Each structure stands twice: as C-alpha cells, then as structure tokens.
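Input for the complex:
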Amino acid sequence: MIRGRFHRRFVAAALVLGVALLSAMPANAQRLTLQEGQVLRGNFEQKRYLGGLANPVRSQGVFTLVAGRGLIWTTTKPFPTTTVMTEAGLIQEVKGKETLRLEASRLPIMSKLYTMFGAALTGDWEAMQGAFALTRQQKGQSWAIQLESRRPDDPNLPIKTINARGQRLLDEVEVVKPNEDRDVLSFSNQKLENGAPTAEENELLTRAQR
Amino acid sequence: MVTAACIFLVVRFQEPGRLRTDLTALLPLELQDPARQKATDLISRSLAQRFVVLVSHKDAAQARARAAELAKTLEDTGLVGQVGEEFSTDRIKQLGALYFPYRSGLMSSADRTALLAGRGQDLAERALATIAAPGAIADARLLKADPFLLLPSFLFSLPFPATRLALEDGLLTRRDEAGTHVLLPARLLGSPFDLSVQKSLVSALDRYQASLAEPERPVIRRLGAVFFAEAGGRKAIDESTWLAALALSATILLILIAFRGLRPLLYNLLVIGAGVACGLAACLFVFGQVHVAVLLFGIGLVGIAADYGFYYMATGFLPGWTPAQRIREILSSLSMALLIAVLGYGALALAPFPGLRQIAVFSAVGLVSSYLTTVIWLPLLSTGSRPAHASRTLQFVMLLSRLWTERRWRALRVAFCGGLAFVMLAGFGRISFDDDVRKLQPLDAALAAQQNMIAAITGLNLSTQYLLIEAESDEYAQQIQEQIAPLLEEWQRAGLIKTAQSPAAYVPSQARQEENRTLRREKLTEPHLAELVEALGLQPSELAPATTDNLPIATALAGRAIPFLNELVLAPGLHVVTLQGVADPERIKREVAAIGGVKFADPTADLSSLLGLYRVRALSLLGLSLTIIFALATWRYGFRGAVRALVPSLTALVVVPCALSLIGQPLTFFTAMALVLLLSFTMDYSVFFAEGKADNRAVTFLAVGLAALATVFSFGVLGLSDTPAVANFGFTILIGVVIAGLLAPVAARPDNPR
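Predicted:
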C-alpha cells in the first residue's frame, strides 16, 4: 500500500532523469528502501554538454528527495534557482519568483519517465527492461549500471543511454540523449534521514502540488 | 385530386432537402441567426461524430493491452478513423514543426505581459535557470534558434482542454486508486445517426467486451452521441412498437365490437390517408419543404377526420337509410365541424412562426380533403345493409345517454361537475411551466452514469457552450478574441469558467504576431541577448534568427497539426471560442452582450427557450382559435348555443393543465401542442351534438363515443411512454378527451330534448 502510494507520488520526480532516484540506490542490491517519513539530501554538480556549445553549462547545488512528496533541486551556482517536482507537475523559481509551472498532464514526458523511474525507485529493474536493456557490473564495493534505450527515437523518452556508477550510494550518472547531448551529474554528501522536511521545503512542495 | 397529390409527393421527395429536421427552421425568420445556426450545426455535427471509450483495469499492463486491442477492434470496423490520432507522437512532432519557423511572432500571454511590464530580465533569467535545471528539454539547436526559450513557453501555454490524463506511449492514461484508465478518443467516419453505423459500432464493442473473461476483463465505459442515439433509438423502437400494437389492437377491437367488421377501419384509413397526402402536398407546394415536427403534428391533426368516418359509419345503424340519405343527414354536422376546424386552425397561420404556418396549411388542406373523401367516397364504398346488432347497440348507447337526461342521475352529474371544479381549484395555483429540453427527453440512465464516471475519472468537460465570433475576416475574428482574452482569464480566475479554447490562442492574429516581434526585439533581444549568449557560451554568429513571416491561420488549418483548431474555425471570419465548466451562463451572456461580434451560445438553453417561445405562442393562438370558433358558433347557434357548444372543449382545456399539475406534471411546449389538438378533437363532439337531430341522438352519441375512444386509444396510450414529453402529451389528450367526451351532450340544442 505504502509502496503503491509512493509510486504514484513521484510522477514529477521522473523529470530529473533518474538522477535523484539512482542516487538513492544502495550499492549491491540496487534496491531502495526509502520509506514514508524519510528524506534523502545531498549535493550535486551538473555538467550539461550540448552539441554545438564549446563548454558545458555548469551548475551546482543541493537536492532534497522527500518520500511521498517530491524532489527539491536547488541550484546555487551560477545563480540561485529552485526547481520543485511533484506528482502535480514542476515549478521553477528564480530569486523567489515563480518563473515556470508545468502541469503533469501537459507534459507527456513526465508520465513516461514516471513509469520508468517509479519502477527504478522501488528497485523493480525488470520493469525498466521494457524501455531499456540493462547491463550490470560489480567490482568489489563499486558497481556500474548501463541502461540502453530500446527506442531512442521515442519523443516521449528522449534518452539514449543512462550510465550510473557508485559504491554505497550513487556517485555519478550520465544521461545521453539521442542527439548526443549529455548531462553528467556528480553527487556527494548524501544522507538518508528520518524526519519531516523543513518548513521551507514543505511550503515549496505544497505550492508545487497545487 | 388525391392521386395528383400523391404523384406530386413522389416527385418532390425525389429531390433532397424536402424534409427538414433542424429545430431552428421552426424559428421566426426575424429570430433566425444564420451564423449561429451554422455554428450550432457544424459544432453539433463535429461533436456528434466524436466518441470516447474508457478502458479501466486494476492492472496497468492489462489496461493498456485491452485498450490497444479495443482500438484495433474499433478501427477494424471501418467506421472510425485512427483511434487517438490527435494525440499521436506524430501529431506532437507536427505541432513543433508548424510553429518553429514562425517562432519570432509567437509568445505566451504571460511572457507578453512580462515584457509589456518591462520584466525582460525575468525571462532572461528563466531561460538560464531552465537550461541549468534538471531534465531540461532544450538542446543547442533550440538555444541557438530561441535563446530565451519563448517557444517552449508558448507551447506549454496552449489551451488544450484540461484533463487529468497524461500521454503514456501514445495512450491517454490516468492512474488512481481503482487502477489504470486508458481513454480512447475516436471519430466516426459516418453519421452517428445512421442506424447501421450505430448498430455495427455498438455490437463491435459489445462483442469485444463479451469475448473477455476474468482476469483480463476490464471495465469499459463509453461516451458519445452515437451511443445515446443508439440507446434512444432502440428504446423508441421498442416502446413505439408495443404502444402502436396496443393502440392498434384496442382500436380494431373497438371497431369490431361496434361494427362487427373491419371495413370501417379501412374507410377511416382512406379518409385520413387522403387528408395527409393532400395536406403534405399543399405544404410542400406552398413552402417548398416541410419540417418533420410539422409532419407528425399535422398527421395528428388530420387524424381527427376519423371522426367524420365514425359519424358516417354510425348512421349505418339507422333502419332503412340509404348511403345518400345517411350522408345528407350528417352533412351539416361534418361541414360545420370542418369549417370550425379550418378557420380555428387558420389562426395558427397568423403567427410569424414557420412551424405553425405549415401546420395551418397542412391541417386546413388535409381536413378539406378528408371531408371530401368522406362525403364523396364513403357513400359509394359502403353497403346499404344495416348491421344485425344495430338495435341492441343503439339501445345500449341510449342507456348511457340517459345519464345526462334523467333526473335520477342528477347527483352523479353534480358530483362529476363538482369533481371538475375541485380539480380546477386545487390545481390551478400549482400549474408550473418547464421547457427544459433535458427534462423532456432524458438521456439513457446507464449511459448517463458512464458519462459521469468518465468525466469524474478523466476530468473531461462535456459542456457545449461557446462564444461565437463573427467578423469580416479571420484576422478580425482573431483580433476580437485577443481583445476578449483578458476577460476570459478574469472569468477563469472568478470561477465562471474552467477553461476556454480560442483559435487566436493557437494562432495569434497577424497584428499580434507583429506586435510580439517588436516587443521581443525592444524589450528582450536588444537589452538582454548579449548577456544571455555570453552566459551560455554561445557565439552571436551561431544564433539562428527566425524569419519575420507571420504564421497564417490558413497554414495552420491546412496542416491540421493543431488538435481542435479546424473545429473552432467554422468559416472565414466565423470562429468559436469553446467554454468549459460554465458556472453562470446568464452572467457570461450579459457580459458579452455589449461586445461587437461576440455572442454567447448555449444550444441546449437555446432549444429550451425556443420551446418556451413556441409554448407561449401556441397558447396565445389557442385563445385566438377559441375566439374565432366562438364567433362562428354564435353565428350558427346563437350566443347561448355557442356557449353550450364551447363548454365541453373549454372545460377540458382548463381542467387538463390543472389535473396535470396535481399529478406533478408541468405545462410544457408538448402540453400546449396537445391542447391545440385537443380543441380540434373535442369541438367535433360538440358540433355533432349541436347539429344532430334529436331523433338520431343515439347515432350521434355512438359516433362521439367511438371517436373519443379511438382518440384515447391512439393518443392516450402515449401516456404510458417512458419519455416525459411523450407521456405528458398522452396524458393531456387522454384526460381532455374523456372530459370533453362526457360533457359533449351539453352542446345539444335544448329544443331537441335529450
């Protein structure tokens, strides 16, 4: 029951292209046991390589994944931006002002990714195999997973490959798009905590769920 | 003459469009609005062809698999286009391809507001934030072409109807506690009112549903005009079959008992058939076409000619009378009844309502034809022999007639009149009027429940209200929509509507695109582009500016990439802004009243208003008919005689609405039309008594009794219908004919002792 509810609530979290989700995976079993009332926090650094641009677009900040509620992605550099993803959709704030609101029903990609990463969230790799061919490697404490899209031309899921590696938790993920654009995200200081989100986080999540 | 009428009918009905079915054709010419009528027709046709099927299963994979199977099943019937075509990934690609070259003039309303307020910096920062955000959709090609990402912002702002569905693998899907729901939207290639289309589609669905067993079996709900039409048609056929069988059996039984043979039935069919053929031919000759409602009502009106046949047949019970003597005996009765009916219903022609005028011509010519058939043909066709049971029948009838003449039945007569007075007093204050077409013709309950469930699960809004925009050209129509866009947003904020879709929201006017381009250049590109480009690490030379061409609406319409757009643009300059979740139609109507080129349309309410208008007009003309009839009766019978002649009909006309109100039925358009018919039926009874000689009173009584019973059997059985409008009509005739039939002897002249 809890798992079912959890599954549904993360419709919007799909948009992070699995970054936060994969980051929550334990090293060996690749199975998440994030429960209601738990919060995963950490730092990230993103490098976005876009074909035709000489340098990657860099950003860094912190993220908070609240079980059953959503994901808060706070970019601190190059300038402060907050992106909140919930079941209802996505909102983005720049300098405290809402600059973007995307409803889940208007963005087909969200539901597609939700199905995929919702399954990943609960460690259901078999479900992922519908859309991706999965390869795992294990070397001592380190692991690596490669997901190859079976339909890279699907406009609802514009991802060609996902490469993830880590030890206890996810260290790095690379998401490659069909046009060879790619995002490389590195994670650090990840902590799985028991307890409620802060008042500010709570307020952001509530606003995004409206 | 009848043969000529039949030939004329055959010839005219070879040409298309002789029989009209659209209700607006019944409106007075000055109230007809061609643009509105065209809009309503096109929208109804387009809406009627759409239908949806919702496949629900607790298991997502099963729901999707069954939905895919069902989509194929539907497509295999050859009756529908590609299921879910509008939501296919191809369509989404087409949408992007359509807008991309014209991006310089396209801007969301919010972005436009921001630029007008001088907040270009906000949009530049939003672009940077979006590019850096997780899951960004922008690639380098898009950034070079649209660095401020105004095109994605415009795309996200497009007013697609709000639903709770999301696209998963090309299927519109919703997940909730009950499981996964997949919506299959489809469009019929043929007419939803074609019986064979209805039957094939419904049986294909039913067959598919029946072929599945647990655990595969999903819950399949359906919604669309085609299903309601199929259910309504099936119910109407079932009901009319047994009602017609009941009416016919009862009438045949009545004639068999009264005349011991079926010849009178054939004579009556001849009399009515001649009337209908000539009435219809006259209508087509005068008006060029006839409305189906007029046809049905006219047939009912000409049906009173059966009274003439019954009267003639009843005279056959008189001993030793030849057919010629018999027709001479009742000629004055028939002539007076005809004169009253024709002049009385001639009053309907005074109204500027095409429907009522057609009825006046139809009934006048039809009744004259029936009269002539009775007078000329029945004496030739009928035998001169008197039935063996004639004496006994007349004796029985005389027994009944004594109820009105003998002193010992006085108490019964007083009680009857007292009862009528009580009904009038008790019911008059309760009379209510209701012309709401939805109540008169309720939808199939099972389908209505499915409709509600589909709306609850998917959030689909099923309202048919809209704003009609009428202008000289598409450009002006789009500009009007842009002028009223802030008003629509205000309505949305105030909860007056949920959403609205206007063509200009998908394709802005040329003027607006020019303005947007200037705004973009002055408030965004010139002050902020250099900084943004540097932040992105782009070279200014790498930018790919868009053309300065505007997206013409004709291009968008021809490409058919924008779902629903082709349904919103009905003709050049004639556009529709659909409104969903209208909470206060009256207020919206008031607010747009002063805006040129904009009209609020609510087809259901319009139809109800039309029925209300006809009800009032029919009742007014009923009063006029009564006045004319009274004048004629005064000329023929003197003032007192006229009062006596009108008492039965007038009593029935007053008592019926009171009696209906006591059984909880409102006074509707159908009641009003039934009252018009009732006057026609019941005046015959009075005239037969007023004209008939005292010596042959039993024959008059027999004729009136048979005519009243036949009417009760033909029309009164409609009171058993499940359709409120039809039942209301039936009750009106039933109660009225019984009252007037019982009171008819009052019309007899006192110098002819009863």
